[in-house]
């Protein structure tokens, strides 16, 4: 029975992986967009993390996670194209459309989640009965369905933390032949450095588990030497790659010795500054514990206080939450690595009645949050970019009240299409911007698809819940602007437009849910 349930949950995970929800801009801008620009020469937008004087993002973990799959896809695509299996008419023979790369990476995240995360839980939980429960809980979590199948550095960190714990357990297992092997400490050295260069928060999750290695290595110094040697070798490779990426000229030994780019150190310095963190939002120290944990695991949070399984997994989760709570900027996704650790460390209620109630609440919680975050959350942004990439007249696109759109999905269109993200500006300022960019209204604009033959066109992309636009949309001359709706995508919630204080709770829900969707208007003006 549990196997069939698990297989069903794997299919649910795959379905959400192939849904175009957009949880946070970082899932594109902190990884895939940068590497896609390197491999496919797509025009991309590098964020401040890559362009500042002291860059804080390492490309070392990006190449194996995103770069190798992209290179493999390019090789396969080229092979099919040369054999006539793929028609590469647009943009040159055999050119890969960015949306194909996007879905390839989503499928990749599903595979490594399904294989590596579940495998790690299987190894970490010793009791067969408890293992089945742990695997099912992790597989039925909406965090596994959504966040873990997106291209977040937090998703990669989750896998690195889990496998670091597996390697620590193997090293500490004195009953196994693996205890005399140097392979586990060698691999742990590589994985630990990879984790640090991926996210500077990674060591927080190994703080307590790592302490258990001290007496073990004291008695087996060769293991410690192997771990240190492999870690130092990996550090040298990581710093070399980062220095090469961020140096405008070909590097030599002098660059590595005199001007190395050490991104984890830059990242740590940046995040130790309250002024820097204030730019991203400050939270109270209890944000993770009292808000983010219940938001991520729901009914399972209560089970932590009812005879939890004391294990290396739980200690890792505790140390991670404790250290991350010290920093004042606390987003829920920062706790992704603790979710499988917590869910594999709880015991289900023993009372049949309580068990039924808990299971029902667990299913309802994850179905609702899964659909919200995995399908509707900013769900129209990726399809919207694909639509704009097909509009031959599009030269300006204004995105209002949405997340920043990933321009690498424009399929080369971004060489002529200027994308502007004006998420938080007032409506009056929006009209001013549109007035500057809107083209003159012509007879072609008033016919079916004749406007596509124009050389220039300005588009406004905004959620249907933005009621401020309502008086202007049917306008035939007011303020000189005219709006023609040319595209609409219904599976889109704009949860960043919740005005509880001004509109009230029910009117806000009615507006955001009842008027869900994202639309694109071609904007012209009377000339």
From TrEMBL:
Record EC number? 2.4.1.-
Q: Which residues form the signal peptide?
A: 1-17
- Top-level enzyme category: transferase
The pathway noted for it is: Glycolipid biosynthesis; glycosylphosphatidylinositol-anchor biosynthesis
Tell me the superkingdom of the source.
Answer: Eukaryota
Tagged with keyword Repeat: no
* UniProt keyword terms in alphabetical order: Endoplasmic reticulum, Glycosyltransferase, GPI-anchor biosynthesis, Membrane, Signal, Transferase, Transmembrane, Transmembrane helix
Chief location of this protein within or outside the cell: endoplasmic reticulum
UniProt subcellular location: Endoplasmic reticulum membrane
Q: Which spans are transmembrane here?
A: 58-77, 98-116, 186-210, 222-241, 285-305, 357-376
Topology in the lipid bilayer is annotated as:
Multi-pass membrane protein
Xref: InterPro entries: GPI_mannosylTrfase
Q: What PANTHER family does the annotation carry?
A: GLYCOSYLTRANSFERASE (PTHR22760), GPI MANNOSYLTRANSFERASE 4 (PTHR22760:SF3)
| Family membership | Belongs to the glycosyltransferase 22 family. PIGZ subfamily.
Spell out the protein name for this chain. Answer: Mannosyltransferase
Q: Which organism is it from?
A: Apiospora hydei
């Amino acid at each position: 029975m549990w196997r069939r349930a698990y297989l069903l949950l794997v299919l649910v995970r795959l379905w959400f992986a192939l849904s175009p929800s957009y949880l946070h801009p970082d899932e594109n801008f902190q990884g895939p967009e940068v590497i896609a620009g390197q491999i496919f020469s797509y025009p991309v937008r590098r964020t401040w993390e890559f362009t500042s004087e002291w860059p804080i993002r390492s490309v070392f973990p990006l190449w194996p996670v995103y770069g190798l799959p992209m290179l493999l896809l390019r090789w396969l695509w080229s092979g099919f194209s040369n054999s006539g299996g793929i028609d590469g008419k647009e943009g040159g023979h055999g050119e890969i459309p960015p949306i194909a790369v996007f879905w390839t990476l989503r499928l990749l995240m599903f595979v490594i989640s399904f294989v590596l995360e579940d495998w790690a839980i299987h190894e970490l939980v010793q009791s067969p009965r408890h293992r089945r429960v742990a695997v099912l809980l992790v597989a039925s979590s909406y965090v596994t369905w959504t966040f873990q199948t997106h291209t977040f550095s937090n998703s990669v960190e989750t896998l690195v933390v889990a496998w670091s714990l597996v390697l620590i357990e193997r090293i500490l297992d004195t009953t196994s032949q693996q205890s005399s092997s140097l392979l586990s400490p060698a691999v742990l050295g590589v994985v630990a450095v990879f984790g640090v260069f991926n996210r500077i928060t990674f060591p927080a999750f190994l703080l307590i588990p790592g302490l258990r290695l001290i007496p073990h290595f004291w008695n087996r110094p060769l293991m410690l030497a192997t771990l240190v040697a492999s870690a130092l070798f990996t550090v040298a490779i990581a710093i070399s790659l980062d220095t090469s990426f961020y140096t405008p000229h070909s590097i030599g030994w002098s660059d590595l010795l005199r001007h190395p780019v050490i991104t984890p150190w830059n990242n740590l310095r940046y995040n130790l500054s309250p002024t820097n963190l204030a730019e991203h939002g400050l939270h109270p120290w209890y944000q993770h514990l009292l808000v983010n944990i219940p938001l991520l695991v729901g009914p399972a949070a209560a089970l932590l206080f009812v005879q939890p399984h004391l294990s290396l997994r739980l200690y890792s989760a505790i140390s991670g939450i404790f250290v991350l709570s010290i920093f004042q900027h606390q987003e829920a996704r920062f706790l992704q690595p603790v979710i499988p650790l917590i869910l594999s460390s709880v015991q289900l209620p023993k009372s049949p009645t309580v068990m039924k109630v808990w299971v029902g609440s667990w299913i309802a919680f994850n179905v609702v949050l899964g659909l919200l975050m995995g399908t509707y959350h900013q769900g129209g942004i990726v399809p919207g970019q694909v639509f704009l990439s097909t509009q031959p007249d599009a030269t300006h696109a204004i995105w209002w009240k949405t997340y920043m759109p990933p321009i690498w999905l424009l399929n080369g269109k971004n060489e002529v299409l200027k994308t502007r993200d004006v998420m938080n500006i007032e409506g009056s300022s929006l009209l001013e911007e549109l007035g500057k960019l809107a083209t003159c209204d012509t007879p072609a604009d008033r016919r079916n698809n004749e406007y596509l033959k124009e050389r220039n066109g300005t588009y406004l992309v905004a959620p249907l819940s933005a009621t401020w636009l309502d008086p202007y949309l049917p306008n035939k001359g007011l303020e000189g602007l005219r709006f023609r709706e040319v595209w609409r995508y219904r599976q889109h919630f704009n949860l960043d437009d919740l005005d509880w204080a001004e509109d009230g709770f029910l009117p806000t829900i009615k507006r955001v849910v009842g008027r869900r969707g994202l639309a694109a208007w071609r904007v012209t003006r009377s000339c």
